Every structure is written in C-alpha cells, then in structure tokens.
C-alpha cells in the first residue's frame, strides 16, 4: 500500500508565492507557501505541501457542501496516508475551498436506500478516514471556515487544534440525534476527549449544533478569528506547534490517543455490523428520508 502511494504521489512545483496575507482568506490560502508539492490531482480534495515549512494545506472542494461520500472519504484517507509517509511533511491544515461550509458531514445519500454491501463499504471508509486522521503523527489543524455538522465536526475534532470563523451563523456539533440516528461510540469518544464528559452528554443527546461563540465557550474550538484570517491564523498556530521537537510531541499525542484508537480497533467488525443493521432498519431509513426532504424544503 505505502509503495503504491509513494509511486502515485505526483510532484509539481508552483513557483514563488508571497508570505503576506491577501484580502481574501480562501483564495490566498496557498500564498503562505513558498514552494509547493501538488499532491492531489483529484477533484474533491486539493493538497499542497510547502517543502520549506513542511506544512500541507488540504482544501475540501466538493460542491455543494463537501459531504463525506464514499469517494471523498477514500480520497481523504489516501491523502492523509501519503502525507503521513512523507518525511518532509510535519503538519497539515484542513480547510474548505467552498463558501459557508467546512463539511456537511457524512453524505446521507450513502446511507439511504442502498444495499447492505454498500453500507459495509461506506462504513469501512468512515472508520479508515478516522483512523488515519486521529492517528496521524503530524500536527493537524482544522481551519473551520463554515458550517461543520456531524461528520464535519468529527473531522475537526480529530485535529490537534481548531480555529473557526467567528461568524455566529456558522455552527458545529454532533447533531446526529436530530436526524433520528445515533453517533457511534468512537464519535462520542472523540468529542469527550475534546470537551469532556458532561458537555458531550448534553451535546450528543440534544444533537446540539453549537454556534461559533458557543463552540469556543465549551472548548469545542480553540480560537475564533475573522473569516478571512482562518487559514493564516492556522498557519501561525502551526508554527507554534512545530517549534516543539517532533518525536516528543508525537509520543505525547500517541499516548493521549492510543486508548481511544485501540477501542475501535478491537470493535471494528462489530461496529460495521451494528452500522449495517441499524441503517437498514425501516425506521432509520424513514428518518433519513424525512431529513433529506426537510433539507430540500428549507431550501425552496
Ligand atoms: C453503530 C451505531 C450505529 C451508527 C448509526 C449511524 C451513524 C451515522 C453518523 C452520521 C454522521 C453524519 O455526518 S450524518 C450527516 C449530518 N449532516 C447534516 O445534518 C447536515 C445537513 N446539511 C445542512 O445542514 C446544510 O446543508 C448545511 C451544511 C448547513 C449547508 O447549508 P446550505 O444552505 O449551504 O446548503 P443546502 O441547500 O442545505 O444543501 C445543498 C445541497 O446539499 C444537500 N446536502 C446537505 N447536506 C448533505 C449531507 N450531509 N449529505 C447529502 N446531501 C446533503 C442538500 O440536500 C442540498 O441538496 P439539493 O437540494 O439536492 O441541492
């Protein structure tokens, strides 16, 4: 696997870019990087690695809402794996190239009116993306420049540090119960590791989507900054994290996260079985169908 990934890593160099922030935080995100390797040629995720700083920017660019489809998750896991294997990479900033949304979470259509075989494949991809990101030895920072419900919140919570746009209309949280579904134990564990037991208990049961200020208050995000500064602030935070020797930081990270990772490793197959039987239930399919309808109506 790793040799295939190394072989398919495509390197291009894109010249000298300015260190100064531009007026538009999204479009100028890559300007922080003086010399880049372009990793991803795919359409859903763009990855650029600055070989001078060792920092990669991963931009989600899957319209309309960066939902985590099977293809997206597969591509995501491959990209994280490639960066993990690249010794010149020390940190990864994850952000969105789309306006107003970081990620809408798992693609509901992947869980709706599909075969059990499809559910198995999809859930494996969800697990794999989590293993790769939560277990990454790199410094990972989420630059949350839009709404980030459910699986979007999970991705952000897997990072070492979270910076969110201070726009009070943006929200983040594990809202699964609002869809009539239940976040699995490792989503819960990930949240609990970030905000603690009591807040997770409330947040999960209520399916709470925290506004950006609320998320800051409970520690679900670490900083709020003006929207156009989300990526530049992530780059600044990254330099602080990278000032620590890698080996000491990595061992500390692994010490904190290993028990949580081991819990899913031990229950991986059972978790898939649970997901398939849960998702296949008529009542769950009905809830998902109603939720999709509600999203459509809200739009019209
Ligand atoms: C083991 C134990 C058992 C395990 C049990 C199972 C556990 C599963 C855990 C689940 C985890 C999840 O992530 S479940 C996913 C939860 N996600 C959500 O609730 C987010 C829902 N979406 C939104 O709130 C909004 O779309 C939001 C992200 C804020 C963006 O708002 P906007 O106004 O910009 O955009 P919208 O007009 O709403 O959406 C644009 C289009 O995208 C679609 N869309 C939006 N979100 C989508 C999504 N997640 N999946 C698919 N499609 C989505 C809409 O239907 C629209 O489609 P058209 O009208 O056709 O254009």
Automatic annotation (TrEMBL):
GO molecular function: delta(3)-delta(2)-enoyl-CoA isomerase activity
EC numbers, comma separated: 5.3.3.8
Catalyzed reactions per annotation: (3Z)-dodecenoyl-CoA = (2E)-dodecenoyl-CoA; (3Z)-hexenoyl-CoA = (2E)-hexenoyl-CoA; (3Z)-decenoyl-CoA = (2E)-decenoyl-CoA; (2E)-tetradecenoyl-CoA = (3Z)-tetradecenoyl-CoA
EC primary class: isomerase
Entry-linked Gene3D superfamilies: 2-enoyl-CoA Hydratase, Chain A, domain 1, 6.10.250.170
Name of this protein: Enoyl-CoA delta isomerase 1, mitochondrial
Source species of the chain: Danionella cerebrum
Function statement: Key enzyme of fatty acid beta-oxidation. Able to isomerize both 3-cis (3Z) and 3-trans (3E) double bonds into the 2-trans (2E) form in a range of enoyl-CoA species, with a preference for (3Z)-enoyl-CoAs over (3E)-enoyl-CoAs. The catalytic efficiency of this enzyme is not affected by the fatty acyl chain length.
Domain of life where this protein originates: Eukaryota
Biological or metabolic pathway of the protein: Lipid metabolism; fatty acid beta-oxidation
Keyword Isomerase in record: yes
Family: Belongs to the enoyl-CoA hydratase/isomerase family.
Assembly description: Homotrimer.
Subcellular location: Mitochondrion matrix
The keyword Glycoprotein appears for this protein: no
Location (main, coarse): mitochondrion
GO biological process, one term: fatty acid beta-oxidation
A GO cellular component entry from the record: mitochondrial matrix
Entries under Pfam families matching the protein: ECH_1
Keywords: Acetylation, Fatty acid metabolism, Isomerase, Lipid metabolism, Mitochondrion, Transit peptide
PANTHER family, per database record: ENOYL-COA DELTA ISOMERASE 1, MITOCHONDRIAL (PTHR11941:SF45), ENOYL-COA HYDRATASE-RELATED (PTHR11941)
């Amino acid at each position: 696997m790793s040799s295939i990934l190394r072989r398919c890593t495509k390197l291009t160099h894109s010249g000298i870019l300015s260190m100064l922030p531009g007026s538009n935080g999204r479009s100028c995100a890559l300007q922080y990087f003086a010399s880049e390797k372009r990793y991803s040629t795919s359409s859903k995720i763009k990855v650029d690695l600055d070989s001078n700083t060792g920092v990669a920017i991963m931009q989600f660019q899957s319209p309309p809402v960066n939902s985590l489809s099977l293809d997206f998750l597969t591509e995501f896991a491959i990209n994280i794996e490639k960066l993990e294997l690249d010794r010149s990479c020390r940190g990864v900033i994850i952000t969105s190239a789309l306006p107003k949304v970081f990620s809408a979470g798992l693609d509901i259509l992947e869980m709706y009116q599909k075969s059990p075989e499809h559910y198995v494949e999809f859930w494996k991809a969800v697990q794999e993306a989590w293993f790769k990101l939560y277990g990454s030895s790199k410094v990972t920072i989420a630059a949350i420049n839009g709404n980030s419900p459910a699986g979007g919140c999970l991705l952000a919570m897997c990072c070492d540090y979270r910076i969110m746009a201070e726009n009070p209309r943006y929200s983040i949280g594990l809202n699964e119960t609002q869809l009539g579904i239940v976040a699995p134990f490792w989503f819960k564990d990930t949240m609990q590791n970030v905000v603690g037991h009591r807040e997770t208990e409330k947040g999960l049961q209520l399916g709470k989507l925290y506004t950006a200020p609320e998320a800051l208050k409970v520690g679900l995000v670490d900083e709020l900054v003006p929207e156009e500064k989300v990526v530049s602030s992530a780059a600044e935070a990254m330099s602080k994290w990278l000032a620590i020797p890698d080996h000491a930081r990595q061992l500390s990270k692994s010490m904190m996260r290993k028990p949580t990772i081991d819990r899913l490793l031990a229950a991986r197959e059972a978790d898939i079985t649970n997901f398939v039987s849960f998702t296949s239930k008529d009542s769950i399919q009905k809830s998902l169908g109603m939720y999709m309808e509600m999203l459509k109506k809200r739009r019209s």
